[in-house]
Design a protein that fits this description.
564 residues, alpha/beta, Rossmann fold, 4 domains, six-stranded mixed β-sheet, 16 helices, 22% strand, extended
Length: 564
């Protein structure tokens, strides 16, 4: 086998007293497509930065094949020093790279290059960073959460673009469908170690569960062995002294092995505060519309959301998803139409910008507003215990919200939303920055939630697993609701034109099989060739018969019934 393009070996990396990577190793060969998965804080992004040369590891080595070009996509691009987006993108090109490709990528991603970095949205910043990273067509692409802040059309475009490249890929993403489409190998960063699966992400979760079950069984066997050795130490027959000393030393090593074993981190425990029971109709919207100047975002849209529904809203950035959501929940008045919200609806919301979080709050204040207890459906809970449910340690109770990571802020927003009593849960981009395990638990929670859920998301797998209907953007101002999940919506939209075409062909075929009944426009009867010939010859035949009758009547010898 050819030597790897990139090889990191025995990587040790700590931040303060926390060791993130402990002997991590990864080799990447030409054309490989590797996804890196693991819990938030497990060291995935740190490993990518070590590969990119942005972090000098405490221990270990990094080998890069001479002449190999590497490009890294950070989670938070830095536009400092660039006047326009175009300047930022072209600064990533090396001598000899194709400048026209950079322009083409910006155009494909909906950018002109003239945008000012200080005025762009999170989605535009992500698209600019993608254009800068992809333009050189490097040998190795290191992509950290490339789908964050992208809408569905952009994600699907990115899938096609990456599939067409010959570059080796290393991907970190929470988007299951994206990983399933692109990965061929899976690297699991777990408790500082790297475990490689020579299959794509689709096979990862079953394999991970098998590994954890095997670990649990091994620890059970170890515990039983320690019990046996301790029993021998107390009650066993005294043997030679050297053997006893050696066996006692082995027991100490077994105890140390058991003590030092670090199992996988606990799972988030999701409970929700209980609100009032809601009526059958949650929202009844009729012919609603909204426009800003000459731009119409919603036009003549109607829907009825009933108790227990899980409704997803999808569409490109700027189409009006958040506007539609705010109208439906009563935070924004429609220009036309009416919206009726049930009298017993108690709304709980979580916005994608996390604007509710005050960076000066402590973690405890953000959850309780200064108290010590949290009210949930199954009773009251102390804030420290509630923090543990969301993988926060008691030491973090006084940590300012402003210094939390993106994943920690996402978990905090989720904890705040679920601690408020309600029966109608509204989530705007809830999957951003959540790891896959937390997403699994959120999906399970939403499926079992007794109330109603409405959410905006670009995560196709999440929508498929959670929603009972999808409201999708179908053109300027046009929205339509489809039953089922995201994949169901795609099938229905794809089948609709084909059904109309099929019905049209069937109608044409049926018309041809019917006897000719005439032209409805002119009122004239359409005759066959035989009928037309008969029509021309019939007068002559009539004339001949009339002459024959007249002749017979004049000749008395031809009288009688035989001649008539």
């Amino acid at each position: 086998m050819a030597p790897p393009l990139l090889h990191v070996r025995d990587i040790e990396q700590s931040f303060g007293n926390t060791q993130v990577l402990d002997g991590a190793e990864c080799a990447l060969h030409a054309g490989e497509r590797l996804c890196v998965v693991g819990r938030n804080g497990s060291g995935k992004s740190t490993l990518l930065k070590v590969m990119a040369g942005l972090i000098e590891p405490d221990e270990g080595s990094v080998f890069i094949q001479p002449g190999t070009t590497i490009r890294y996509l950070p989670q938070e691009p830095d536009f400092t020093g660039y006047a326009t987006i175009g300047d930022y993108v072209e600064a990533g090109l090396a001598p000899g790279d194709d400048h026209y490709r950079a322009q083409a990528l910006m155009q494909a991603l909906g950018l002109t290059g003239e945008e000012y970095p200080k005025l762009i949205s999170g989605g535009e910043a992500r698209r600019a960073a993608l254009a800068r990273t992809l333009a050189p067509k490097p040998d190795v692409l290191l992509l950290d959460e490339p789908t964050n802040h992208l809408d569905l059309p952009s994600i699907e475009w990115l899938e096609r673009e990456l599939s067409s490249l010959s570059s080796a890929l290393v991907l970190i993403s929470h988007d299951r469908r994206f990983l399933e489409q692109l990965s061929r190998k899976t690297l699991w960063v777990d408790r500082g170690q790297c475990r490689l699966l020579n299959k794509g992400f689709g096979a990862f979760e079953d394999w991970r569960d098998e590994v954890l079950e095997a670990e649990e069984l091994e620890q059970h066997k170890l515990a039983r062995k320690i019990v046996r050795e301790e029993h021998w130490l107390r009650y066993g027959v005294t043997a030679r002294r050297k053997r006893n000393v050696r066996r006692l030393k082995n027991l100490g090593e077994l105890r140390a092995q058991k003590r030092d074993f670090e199992g996988p981190k606990g799972n988030i425990t999701l409970n929700v505060a209980e609100g009032r029971g809601a009526g059958k109709i949650i929202i009844d919207a009729k012919n609603i519309g909204k426009a800003y100047g000459e731009q119409t975002l919603i036009q003549n849209f109607s829907c009825r959301i009933t108790r227990g529904s899980r409704v997803g809203i999808v569409g490109p950035n700027g189409a009006g998803k958040t506007t539609l959501l705010n109208m439906l929940i009563g935070e924004l008045a429609p220009d036309t139409g009416t919206i009726k919200i049930g009298d017993t609806v108690d709304l709980v919301s979580m916005d994608q910008n996390r604007s509710e979080l005050n960076p000066e709050w402590s973690l405890k204040e953000a959850l309780t507003n200064g108290g010590d207890m949290v009210d949930l459906a199954n009773g009251r809970k102390h804030v420290m215990a509630y923090m543990k449910d969301f993988l926060f340690t008691p030491d973090q109770a006084g940590t300012p919200v402003g210094v939390l990571s993106g994943g920690e802020k996402a978990r905090l927003m989720l904890a705040r939303a679920l601690a408020l009593p309600g029966n109608f849960l509204v989530l705007d981009e809830p999957t951003n920055d959540l790891d896959l395990e937390t997403l699994d638990l959120l999906q399970a929670f939403l499926s079992d939630y007794a109330g109603t859920v409405m959410l905006v998301s670009h995560d196709r797998d999440f929508l498929d697993r959670v929603t009972t209907s999808i409201i999708v953007h179908e053109g300027p101002g046009q929205w339509r609701e489809y039953p089922g999940g995201y994949s169901d919506m795609l099938r229905q939209r794809k089948a609709a034109p084909a059904t109309k075409k099929k019905n049209k062909k069937q109608a044409q075929k049926a018309d041809k099989s019917k006897p000719a009944t005439g032209d409805t426009k002119s009122g004239k009867v359409k005759l066959t060739f035989k009928d037309q010939h008969a029509l021309k010859t019939l007068p002559l035949e009539i004339e001949a018969l009339e002459k024959r009758i007249e002749k017979n009547q004049r000749d008395p010898r031809r009288s009688g019934p035989f001649y008539q």
